[in-house]
Amino acid sequence: MIDTVYRDEYPTVVGLVATDKLQATDYKHVIPVLDDIIQKHGSLRAVVDINNYKGISLHAIFEELKFDTTHWSSFHRIALVGEKKWHEQMTKITNKLMHGQMRFFHTNEIDEAWQWAAE
């Protein structure tokens, strides 16, 4: 499941909370929200909380890849929030592959993650 979260003080940033194992239907729900943000603001700034993320189905991977390749140049700042070492390592690898910036934050740094994504 992917829930969206907003903070009034950061109107150009969307928060995404990924829980359990992500399915293609999760992406079909959230992609229109992300498309709308890109259309309104010209780029995507997001804070993604993956503390309760349990993996991703093959069909969901395809949905994510379709979105990522379509909007590759629209990614501006993506803050990944988690606690596991592999979360941090995944962020470093992905940051090298993406157009915008991706940075890892620990759970207790979530306020800093929102601030950084909004810059």
Report on this structure:
By secondary structure, this protein is of the alpha/beta class. The chain has one domain (2-118): Transcription Regulator spoIIAA (2-Layer Sandwich). Helix content is 45%, strand content 34%. It contains four helices and five strands. The chain has helices spanning 24-41, 58-70, 85-97, 110-118; strands spanning 2-5, 14-22, 44-56, 75-82, 101-106. Strands 1-2-3-4-5 form a five-stranded mixed beta sheet, with helices on both faces. The protein is globular, with a radius of gyration of 13 Å.
Number of helices: 4
Report the major sheet: 5 strands, mixed
Mean residue pLDDT:
94
CATH architecture: 2-Layer Sandwich
H and E order? EEHEHEHEH
Number of strands: 5
How far the N terminus sits from the C terminus, by CA atoms, comes to: 27 Å
**SS class:** alpha/beta
Indicate the CATH topology.
Transcription Regulator spoIIAA
- The shape, in one word, is globular
Tell me roughly what share of residues is in helical segments.
40-55%
Strand order of the largest sheet: 1-2-3-4-5
| Multimer state | single chain
Radius of gyration: 13 Å
